[in-house]
Amino acid sequence: MKPSALLRTLSAMALAAAAIVCAPSAQAAPREDAAFGATQDVAPELANVGIDEHLGGALPKDTIFRDTSGQMVTLGQYFDGRRPVLLVFAYHTCPMLCSLVLDAVATSLVSVPWTVGNEFDVVSISIDPHDTPATASKKRDELVAKYGRGGSTTGWHFLVGDEQNIRRVTSAVGFDYHWDERQQQYAHPAAVYLLTPDAKIARYLYGIAYEPSDVRLGLLEASQGRFISTTEKLLLYCYHYDPQGKKYSLVAMSVMRLGGGATVVLLGGFLGIMFLREKRKRRASTARNDGTPTDTNSAANLPHQHAS
Is 26 exposed, middle or buried (0-12, 13-18, 19+ CB in 10 A)? Predict the structure, then answer.
């Protein structure tokens, strides 16, 4: 291939790579889910149970609760403007689901590099107004023991309150639940919520098992750039939250953008070198065609002088 044709081909490749880098990302349409999956026919008891996502919505920081010591606190006390918060709704006499969710949280956080109480906090709010600081204290101690990291007790906050304050928070999150009189228990969805340092909803993670990588990336996103190393920022770029699957996934377009950006840089440098070489060759060719004599040729063409 001639140099000029090669340059045209490489230029086209660079433009294609630049188009990938600059292309707008496609936003997946959110999907309404029931407790564990896609909207579908459910039992009458679960007709009004689910989660209506309010991403970016603010929690009411003036709501009043009692902590494990019985002290009156406001929800806003657990948002210091620096650290994200992992929020859980659970009640302490729940026969099964709440314990599974709380255990899953502790199990997942064991494998998360950040430590509760240092880089983020965990707040658990009981949805049962009959729960007490004593039951909250017992549940907290169980979770802290399962977590197993020394010195993290201060980062686990278990709160109880009245119906009005509980409902204000659950409504802000979009957590729909109700008391099932026949079963004598609450019907509610299973999820955890990642909140920004200023008490806004950053992410929803669904189910009764939470991949540590999903939790870690969610906390990174919720932290709004705080505590993020360069490597972690790259992870945030390579992964995004997939509303269709309700978990973090590798985004092909993001990877293409990263690869495209690198390609643009490499091709740009290579094209620059090729253009300089081509320019030099053209100058040399032009000089030869003009017949411009060199010093050697000039000496050869001088007339011979003979001694008189």
Answer: exposed
